[in-house]
């Protein structure tokens, strides 16, 4: 079911990740370069920044440096070009994701659940596909399941010790250079088994933060971790500050969206609906998630968790202080539901609010839900909105060499190794994990078309 990238060392992993997919990676780096040009970035400054980042990796995270060098070798590029693209992609504007963790005593079966509603613009599927999971297995490091694209922006979601994670992009103005969020996440997943170990990775390393409030920034992210000991944490950070909240302090549940709720926003420079009106949807989604978690506390299992991820309810309780009240006959706030849909897209079009319609179409879209159930060695995935798609159970016990895999195999209600039925729809060329040279080639074409359209839209929206 899952693509497994095995390697004897980090350099070989980077090389293997790109070999055969050079066109897709090059198209992605072209997109990153185009994004930098539109921002008016100075090429010399970006090259110097990339060189500083490579030097930091050599000091703090040499494994990632080796992977970058391996990727660059496979593509016939300089490592600074790859690093420049990686930093540019990480600072791409995007929003979304409403996540939670539930651990005992909040769960009825004593298990640990971590849920990630993955909300990003639909064009992201041209890069990662509809089932965007793969296994990173490098000798000497903990194997783990990643979401994303190898080396450039893979995000770990579960490792062989059951440590599970999910993330939310978030805006902040307290900026500075350091390890990117992706690198911090990967470092934690391949070296740690507990949430305390993951917190230590954030605490003990410099944290890269790109300034930005509008629509949030991918690089600046909140991270939920949960471990097999029955504890979970939310880590919120800026460059100079961080805050940690524990599930044990909240009855066994935690929720997170696209703003800082535990880290003082006066320190992080985080957004609120006054400084950035578009973030109002995050406040509504987070309030609704906490409402549901409190209601189901003590009764949460994998079926209840799925029901929560499908929710379309509204809760404006956290928006009252900003002057926003719920109007049962009015228009809902953009991006305001846990399971995201562009509810207001056609309303904006009718009012000829073309920019607002385009923004709503891109920010209010749940591409997947990932529900991590480490005790069952399973990740449940929906290839689309969880309210419309069936969950596909993905068995990871063998690929991650989990010690309790034999026990879990007796408890699951599906056959390990089960694969979805093959279909002949054209859209399936974008479906991972059946990536081929042809599918990667077609994804690169799609990404190139989007890059051109994105440039045209930017020119029409931004006036000199």
What is the CATH topology descriptor?
A: Penicillin V Acylase, Chain A
How many helical stretches?
15
SSE order, as H and E? EHHHHHEEHEEEEHHEEEEHHHHHEEEHH
Mean pLDDT: 86
Strand arrangement in the largest pleated sheet? 11-2-3-12-13-14
Q: Please provide the count of β strands.
A: 14
Beta-strand level of the residues, as a percent range? 15-25%
Explain what you see.
By secondary structure, the protein is α+β, with helices and mostly antiparallel strands. The chain is 37% helix and 16% strand. The longest helix is centred in the C-terminal third of the chain and has 25 residues. It is globular, with a radius of gyration of 21 Å. The C terminus is likely disordered.
Give a brief description.
The protein has helices at residues 10-18, 22-38, 43-60, 62-75, 79-90, 125-128, 181-191, 195-204, 265-268, 280-296, 302-309, 345-350, 354-363, 405-409, 437-461, and strands at residues 3-7, 98-102, 113-119, 133-138, 144-147, 155-159, 164-169, 221-226, 232-237, 242-246, 253-256, 366-373, 378-382, 392-395. It is α+β, with helices and mostly antiparallel strands.
Features:
464 residues; 15 helices; 14 strands; alpha+beta; Penicillin V Acylase, Chain A; 16% strand; disordered C terminus; four-stranded mixed sheet
SSE topology:
Blueprint: E1 3-7, H1 10-18, H2 22-38, H3 43-60, H4 62-75, H5 79-90, E2 98-102, E3 113-119, H6 125-128, E4 133-138, E5 144-147, E6 155-159, E7 164-169, H7 181-191, H8 195-204, E8 221-226, E9 232-237, E10 242-246, E11 253-256, H9 265-268, H10 280-296, H11 302-309, H12 345-350, H13 354-363, E12 366-373, E13 378-382, E14 392-395, H14 405-409, H15 437-461
Parallel strand pairs: 1-4
Antiparallel strand pairs: 2-3, 2-11, 3-12, 4-5, 5-6, 7-8, 8-9, 9-10, 12-13, 13-14
Helix pairs in contact: 1-4, 2-5, 2-15, 3-4, 3-5, 4-5, 7-8
């Amino acid at each position: 079911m899952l693509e497994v990238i095995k390697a004897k060392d980090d350099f070989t992993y980077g090389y293997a990740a790109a070999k055969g997919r050079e066109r897709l990676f090059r198209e992605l780096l072209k997109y990153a370069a185009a994004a930098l040009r539109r921002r008016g970035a100075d090429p010399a400054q970006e090259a110097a920044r990339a060189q500083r980042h490579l030097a930091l990796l050599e000091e703090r995270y040499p494994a990632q440096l080796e992977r970058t060098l391996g990727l660059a070798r496979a593509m016939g590029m300089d490592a600074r070009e790859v690093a420049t693209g990686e930093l540019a992609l990480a600072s791409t504007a995007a929003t979304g994701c409403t996540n939670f963790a539930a651990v005992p005593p909040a769960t009825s079966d004593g298990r640990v659940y971590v849920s990630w509603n993955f909300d990003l613009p639909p064009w992201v599927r041209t890069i990662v596909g509809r089932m965007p999971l793969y296994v990173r297995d490098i000798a000497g490091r903990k194997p783990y399941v990643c979401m994303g694209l190898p080396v450039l922006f893979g995000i770990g979601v579960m490792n062989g010790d059951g440590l599970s994670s999910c993330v939310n992009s978030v805006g902040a103005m307290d900026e500075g250079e350091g390890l990117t969020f992706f690198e911090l996440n990967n470092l934690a997943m391949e070296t740690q088994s507990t949430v305390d170990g993951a917190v230590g990775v954030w605490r003990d390393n410099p944290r890269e933060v790109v300034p930005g409030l509008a629509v949030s920034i991918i690089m600046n992210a909140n991270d939920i971790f949960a471990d097999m000991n029955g504890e979970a944490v939310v880590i919120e950070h800026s460059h100079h500050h961080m805050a940690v909240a524990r599930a044990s302090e909240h009855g066994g549940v935690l929720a997170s969206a696209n703003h800082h709720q535990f880290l003082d926003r006066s320190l992080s420079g985080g957004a609120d609906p006054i400084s950035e009106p578009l973030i109002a949807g995050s406040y509504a989604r987070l309030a609704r998630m906490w409402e549901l978690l409190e209601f189901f506390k003590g009764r949460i299992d994998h079926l209840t968790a799925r029901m929560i991820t499908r929710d379309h309810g509204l809760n404006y309780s956290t928006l009252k202080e900003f002057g926003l009240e719920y109007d049962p006959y009015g228009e809902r706030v953009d991006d305001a539901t846990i399971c995201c849909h562009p509810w207001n897209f056609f309303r904006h079009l009718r009012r000829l609010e073309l920019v607002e319609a385009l923004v709503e179409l891109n920010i209010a879209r749940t591409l997947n839900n990932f529900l991590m159930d480490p005790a069952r060695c399973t990740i449940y995935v929906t290839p689309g909105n969880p309210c419309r798609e069936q969950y596909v159970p993905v068995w990871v016990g063998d690929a991650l060499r989990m010690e309790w895999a034999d026990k879990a195999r007796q408890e699951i209600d599906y056959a390990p190794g089960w694969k979805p039925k093959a279909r002949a729809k054209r859209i399936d060329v974008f479906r991972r994990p059946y990536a081929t040279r042809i599918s990667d080639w077609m994804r690169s074409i799609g990404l190139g078309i989007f890059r051109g359209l994105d440039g045209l839209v930017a020119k029409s929206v931004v006036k000199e």
